[in-house]
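Dear support,

We are seeing what looks like truncated structure output for some complexes. This example has two components. We would appreciate it if you could run it in full and send us the complete token output so we can diff it against ours.
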Amino acid sequence: MDHMTDDDRVFKALADATRRYLLDLLQSRDGRTLGELESEIAMTRFGVMKHLRVLEEAGLVTTRRDGREKLHFLNPVPIRLIHDRWIDKYTELRVSALAELKSELEETA
Amino acid sequence: MSTIAAQTTQVYQVFIKATPEAIWDAITRPEFTARYFYGARIENTAERHRALSPDGDVWGDSPTFEYDPPRRLVHEWQSLYDPELAGEEPSRVSWEIEPQDGGYCKLTVVHDRLEASPKTAESVSGAGWMMVLSGLKTLLETGEPLASA
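Here is the complete output from our reference environment:
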């Protein structure tokens, strides 16, 4: 696996309405089988499997065996990492720009 | 999350560019945990899982179930940092470290046996474990804790 492109995989996985819906399904009830997920989506088993594979490759879904069943779990950590890496960075910039503007305005006032 | 019951089995996973030994140290030694685990000084030994607040209050004191360095750690979880959570049944936390290609390890945290502890399940979901794991990754890969942690 090429870990340099982790962010790419997450963004790509999230850029699809069906995959976001699958994540929402797992968020409302975690630890589901393929059959359970399939029953909530108007799509073939193969189609759902394909989407789940993209989500797994992005690390957004993890699977664990429970007896004979394979259960799918939402893994929110990559979204948190995107948040830390991108969202925090830009909100911080904006805050510091406003702070600078404030001190500049107050100095000239 | 408030309208939905929090999950009774929660799985969190992160890839970290570090050796299994470095990750093991970071999750079992208090001088490391203090830098990413809400300030908690956590010591995991083959016998106990003990957590102290920055002020020295007991945040956790539970038995260890499995202790297999640097691969697998399983311990009981009881949130003593909040009286309401402390009154709930103990749950279980499992840490798995699996080496991957390219100097990475896959770290999986499973928090389960939460059936009788809905408030604990709610409190560790959402930002709870996510903040811990993203902070741990940042610490191990950059040597710096997250600014907000």
